[in-house]
Design brief:
163 residues, alpha+beta, 5-stranded mixed beta sheet, 33% helix
Length: 163
Amino acid sequence: MNQSDLHIRLAEPRDLESLVTFNMALAWETEGRQLDRALLRSGVESILADSAKGFYVVMEHLPTGQTIGQLLITFEWSDWRNAVFWWLQSVYVQKEWRRRGVFRQLYDYVLREGERQGNVAGIRLYVEQHNTVAQGVYAHVGLSAAPYKVFENDFILPTRPSE
C-alpha cells in the first residue's frame, strides 16, 4: 500500500452516502442490527451540519476517490478534568482495507488533533463485548480497557435478534 495514495480529512456533506453505507454495515457486522436507513441518514446529516455534535474523520484512497474508512468523534464534558473526552464511534474500515493500518492512521490523526487542541482530556470508546477482533485492534494502538461498564436504556434502537 502506497501511503501517498491515502488521505485523511474531516468528512463533508459529499461523504453522506459513504458514511450511511458504512454505518449500516457496521451495525450489521458487529451487532446483527438492521438500522433504519432514513433515520441513520438524518442522524449523519445532523452531525455533518452541526460540529457541536461531533465530527467524522474519513480516509480516502486518492487514485480511486473511494472512501475506505471512517470514525466519528462525539463529546463528553468532564467536570472532574474541566475538559472534554472525545468518544470514538462508528469506526468502520472496508473489508478489503482491513489489517492494512487504516484504523491506526485514523486513530493517530485523532490523537494528534486532540493533543493539539489542548482542551481534550482523553479519548474513549465502547466496543461490543464479544467483538474480540476490534478489542485486539484497539489494544494494539494503545487503548486500554477502562474500569467501567456501560449501562443504557435505549429508546430508539430495537433489541438485537439474539436478545
